[in-house]
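2024-03-11 09:14:02 INFO worker-7 job=invfold-0412 stage=load source=structure_tokens
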């Protein structure tokens, strides 16, 4: 069993920053990529960013490009999401997810149905 535990969410003013962490545990943790998604009230879950686990290639949604940075620490089995210049529209529950499929392409990383395990989420609220 793989467990993903997110942390680092909270309340921040517009223009501020937060750093989310996602720590993985479990003997079968061996992803090809890790992703961050978010879901605002009344909206569908949307892709935010992804990173390949071995090569570290990164992918971003257009809405966060230039403001968010995804990174990982393989030794700690942890993935991070540094969020800068936050906007009220970034308010959502943020989830990390693990991708184990052999085909690695940005198209597949952007769809939540392709991910194999998920964390419980952490709330990010940006006030105006």
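2024-03-11 09:14:09 INFO worker-7 stage=emit residues=128
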């Amino acid at each position: 069993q793989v467990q993903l535990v997110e942390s680092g969410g909270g309340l921040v003013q517009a223009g501020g920053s937060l750093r989310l962490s996602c720590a993985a545990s479990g003997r079968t943790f061996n992803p090809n990529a890790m992703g961050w998604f978010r879901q605002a009230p009344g909206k569908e879950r949307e892709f935010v960013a992804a990173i390949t686990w071995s090569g570290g290639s990164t992918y971003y949604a257009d809405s966060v490009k230039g403001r968010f940075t995804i990174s990982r620490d393989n030794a700690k089995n942890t993935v991070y999401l540094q969020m800068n210049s936050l906007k009220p529209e970034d308010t959502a529950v943020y989830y990390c997810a693990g991708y184990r499929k052999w085909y690695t392409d940005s198209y597949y990383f952007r769809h939540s149905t392709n991910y194999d395990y998920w964390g419980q989420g952490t709330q990010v609220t940006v006030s105006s």
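2024-03-11 09:14:09 INFO worker-7 stage=report msg="DSSP finds one helix and eleven strands in the chain."
2024-03-11 09:14:10 INFO worker-7 job finished
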